[in-house]
Design goal:
Blueprint (H helix, E strand, L loop, with lengths): L4 E5 L2 H13 L4 E5 L12 E5 L7 H17 L5 E4 L12 H12 L4 E4 L7 E4 L2 E4 L2 E2 L18 H6 L5 E5 L1 H6 L1 H13 L2 E6 L4 H11 L6 E4 L1 H11 L14 E6 L4 H9 L4 E3 L2 H6 L1 H14 L5 E3 L4 H11 L1 H23 L1 E7 L1 H11 L3 E9 L2 E7 L5 E7 L8 H4 L12
Parallel strand pairs: 1-3, 1-4, 2-3, 4-11, 5-10, 5-11, 9-10, 12-14, 12-15, 13-14, 15-18
Antiparallel strand pairs: 2-16, 6-7, 7-8, 16-17, 17-18
The chain binds adenosine-5'-diphosphate.
Adenosine-5'-diphosphate (ADP) binds next to helix 12, helix 13 and helix 14.
Amino acid sequence: MSIVLGVIADDITGACDVAAGVTAAGLSAEVRLGVPDPGRSPSSDCVIVALKSRTAPVASAVAESVAVARVLREWGAGRIFQKYCSTFDSTDDGNIGPVADALVDELGVWGSVGTPATPAVGRTMHRGHLFVGDRLLSESSLAHHPLTPMRDADLVRVLGRQTPHRVGFVPIEQARAGADAVASGIRDLRDEGVRHVLLDAVEDRDLDAAAAAVAHADGVLLGGAAGLAVALARRLGAGATPVVAAPPAGRALVLSGSGSERTRGQVAAFAGPRFDLDTDALAGDFDAVVAEALAFVRSCDTVPLVSATAEPATVAHAQERWGRERAAALVEDALATIAVAAVDELGVRRILVAGGETSGAVAAGLGVDVLRVRRVAAPGVAWTTATDEAGRALDLCFKSGNFGGTDFFTEAFEETGAFEEDA
Ligand code: ADP
């Protein structure tokens, strides 16, 4: 089977976001965790490789991304797409620019064309500036992100600081004039010596024009967030209704380590039994807290939630007391350990995980390396099937902190099988 779209994603929930979107658009999709073994060929239209490279040291982000590009090419991927966050999470050092430069060199193409615009989640590009809802990126909460504070909304300038090459943008008027106008805008910029082209897009129809302009363009690296990847899938997919499989039998569990506002709302709205993890208690006696959490899960006869999600002041207190990295590691290790023991000892086979870093830790703990989309649960969120190291079939849902409605922790387990735009 030839790969229609090969995606290199800088984190696991971003990879699952693309997987959910392209599946809903009619392409079969699988997520590979880490640089894949070239000997294990994929069996999907779209292969999305999830790295942990968003905030990794530049050199390792570049080396891993290039290694993934080689494998995708070896597998015959026609198009390579560099997936980054729809809020362009990065610093002046990278990693979006250096990775794009390295991929352009590796693929032997003239440059890159992409956009973080994803109107479905309120990310729009206008005059090369990124908006989050009604606000400029630099005036949104992302300006205060602890690792990648986005204090400039002019992405031509932002990306320009990350690459020695020229950056330009194709304005919204050209998207509105259609695919040919976008294609000619890209050509003009390329002829002027621009290496990285960003595209304005405010609505999905602008992304559709962009996708039509680049879907069959050889010799370019594609890039952006889920919006453009999904628009490409709409263009390239068979238009088939995604196959919705039944979940495996077994107990279910929700694990939350995200600190995002959306997830805080989901935890608060969850009506089932909940066990709160406390960083002070974990630092005091990790094994005892994990054992207590497992005893709690064992005792529940409805889907339980084990959560470290807390108000910003509580997280700040934990970080002051234990250090940011140690506090995060305590939570991530605890949730990963609980996931593994719940599968090994309690018959849990279905796990919903909230939070990007948290998802990475749980996936690594479970030892899974291929996720196949089973069902789209909400825009940007999918249930996936995976086989662990012991050969057990697991049903896993890795959700970015910001995704899903308020009642997602309950609704995600309702097997309606339908993809609803406003779910
Ligand atoms: P999101 O996708 O919302 O950013 P992540 O899982 O990527 O969620 O990031 C949340 C980070 O905060 C993780 O590293 C997690 O371990 C850490 N964390 C979660 N809860 C707490 C807490 N109560 N105290 C300190 N750190 C926490």
